[in-house]
Amino acid sequence: MSKVGTSIDEAVEILKRGGLVAIPTETVYGLGANALNKSAVLKVFAAKKRPSFDPLIVHSTKDKIFNWAKTVPEKARILADAIWPGPLTLILTKTDDIPYEVTSGLDTVGLRVPNHPLALQLLERLDFPLSAPSANPFAYISPTTAQHVFDSLKDEIDYILNGGESQIGIESTIIAFDKEIPTVYRLGGLSIEDIEKVIGHVQVQINTSSNPKTPGSAKMHYAPLKPMFLVDDFSQIEDDATTAYITFHENLDIENQRQFSLSTKGDYYEAAARLYALLRELDESDFRRIVAKRLPEESLGRAINDRLQRASARYIKND
Length: 319
Ligand code: TXA
Ligand code: MG
Known about the structure:
about 325 residues, 2 domains, four-stranded parallel β-sheet, Rossmann fold, binds magnesium ion, eleven-stranded mixed β-sheet
């Protein structure tokens, strides 16, 4: 069973011998392993029951991270300088040191510098980068506390580094630079507006196919186990006493115990930080189904809608 604690020494020791350590980040907790050690990387896939075609993100500190990229386009460097450490993953051409086990056979690698003091202290101490997918079983809700990680992966991980609640609460924004206009492949904790302030226009290309050509874009993801629906308007739903409602900030004309606001003050960042813990809480509750209403498509509202959409994908018809 995993030990939970705050010892960097212990984490370093385990990672050096090829073990698995869950690490706190500002987005979600990651399941860390030595990215240069193939057998450690394979343990990550096994622990998560993750399909081998879904590549991992590689983490390090700002001064070391580009050691694992063959070339860094100018816009990538400018964006990294402005945002890292932060909720941003760059897709770049990998160096030969990064095994294909990490990238699922791709010649590109996702690189990120997380913004969390414990994670950064740990990464400072290592002479290898950490491959770290979100520390949840494949397709389940990502963890934003050490307890979430413990609940679902305690038998698979050697150590869980406890860094409190993730401040951003949804995964990093993923962006690639292989086309003339940079392409966002995953909406996340860094808004499109904030990216465009730094490097100008970007295009958003989110794959929601159930048979993804782009790795890691499985339609059903981040999903609770009970029925969940995403709507534009709650009048689309026939109400009953076993339904829980997720709203952004509005107050519905039903009992308070059945409505869950992501942010009463209408703050997108507060909403993102609360999202996954709320989905877990409702999944474990006695409610029979969850109904969420789409947020406005701006700021982190876009990424939150993307996660709500995937969380409810099992139950969306004609898609
Ligand atoms: O915020 C985050 O990014 C968190 C924390 C732990 O850093 N990590 C995370 O990892 O969300 P994960 O494994 O749940 O998602 C990684 C996704 C893959 O599913 C895939 O979509 C994308 O990153 N990815 C990784 N490498 C890629 C590559 N070379 N090309 C395209 N997409 C890639
Ligand atoms: Mg994930």
